[in-house]
Amino acid sequence: MANEILGTDVVVQIGIIVKDIEKTAKEFAEFFGVDVPQIIETEEYNKTHTEYKGQPTKARAKLAFFKNFKNIEVELIQPDENPSTWREFLDKHGEGIHHIGVFVKNIDQKIENLKKVGIDVVQKGDYTGGRYAYMNSTEKLKFILELLENY
Amino acid sequence: MANEILGTDVVVQIGIIVKDIEKTAKEFAEFFGVDVPQIIETEEYNKTHTEYKGQPTKARAKLAFFKNFKNIEVELIQPDENPSTWREFLDKHGEGIHHIGVFVKNIDQKIENLKKVGIDVVQKGDYTGGRYAYMNSTEKLKFILELLENY
């Protein structure tokens, strides 16, 4: 059944915070028997408009996407030193699973739905072809929910 | 592509360690618009034969399974005080995503495959209708991989 708040019942992504993305991407690729994916860096602020806890941040991250699972994508994320949900997670918890991502339509409406149940945006930004919002769902759901909307 | 080591490329489960399963199961059910699932307790040692780090353990856990996502199951786990991977995770990291689970065939063979790449069993046991093994994959993969085999 489609969730009323999110409008979807499909998990599309598991996001993992790592310290050394080159090393972990290589380990992943070896383990899963696939090529090492391209490691990309998120763009600068003037393109991403990243906000963390309501404030603009210069935070960037290196990313690698593993698409070898049939039903879910794994994203590796190496944060930089600037304030972000990625950096906060690494400092508090160390490496590990940071978020579960879902694709939504009309992300602003979905954010409003979440606010109504007490879950606010912790970080948001733009990427080429879409937008994302990490939600402060940890208290209720014990994980960070990421909303993703591709245009 | 089917992974050579695991023989599967489908993630079936995300396991989340929680402190208060009644509370979190209720929050989950409300959020996702589904009924609160039955909360079950794992059986005693004489049925589960649970081993943690190679030693028998009396550890038990309360579990709740959410099957509202189309492509993946979410398992909530509340550990007891006895030594287990669940307890260790809660003590070290607090609540959060503990493991990613895959169904395998011939779990003993898959465990051997994993040992060959330096990943050993951290905890294993029986449940009604099947067996599981949590693998010490954290260093390589940054998450605990759970192998599940139903008979």
Q: How would you characterize the overall build of this protein?
A:
The structure is a homodimer of 151-residue chains. Chain A is α+β, with helices and mostly antiparallel strands and 151 residues long. The first copy, chain A, has a single domain, classed as Roll (2,3-Dihydroxybiphenyl 1,2-Dioxygenase, domain 1), CATH 3.10.180. Helices cover 26% and strands 34% of the residues of chain A. Chain A is built from five helices and ten strands. Chain A has helices spanning 21-32, 45-48, 85-93, 107-116, 138-141; strands spanning 13-17, 40-41, 51-52, 55-56, 61-66, 73-79, 96-103, 121-127, 130-135, 144-150. In chain A, strands 2-5-6-1-7-10-9-8-3-4 form a ten-stranded mixed β-sheet. In chain A, a hairpin with a 2-residue loop joins β3 (51-52) and β4 (55-56). The longest helix of chain A has 12 residues, at 21-32. Chain A is globular, with a radius of gyration of 15 Å. Chain A starts with 12 loop residues before the first strand and ends with a strand. The relative contact order of chain A is 0.21. The mean pLDDT of chain A is 96. Chain A binds chain B through residues 1, 3-5, 9-11, 14, 16-18, 24, 27-28, 30-34, 68-72, 76, 93-97, 100, 117, 138, 140-143, and chain B through 1, 3-5, 9-11, 14, 16-18, 24, 27-28, 30-34, 68-72, 76, 93-97, 100, 117, 138, 140-143.
Portion in helices of chain A: 25-40%
Text of the CATH class of chain A:
Alpha Beta
What is the number of independent domains of chain A? 1
Q: How is the largest sheet of chain A built, in terms of strand order?
A: 2-5-6-1-7-10-9-8-3-4
The tally of beta strands of chain A, per DSSP, is 10
Content-based structural category of chain A: alpha+beta
- Which CATH-level-2 architecture of chain A? Roll
Main β-sheet description of chain A: 10 strands, mixed
The biggest chain-chain interface is:
A-B, 37 and 37 residues
Taking all residues together, what is the mean pLDDT of chain A?
A: 96
Pattern of helices and strands of chain A? EHEHEEEEHEHEEHE
C-alpha-based Rg of chain A, rounded: 15 Å
Q: How would you classify the quaternary structure?
A: homodimer
* Low-confidence regions of chain A: none
Shape summary of chain A: globular
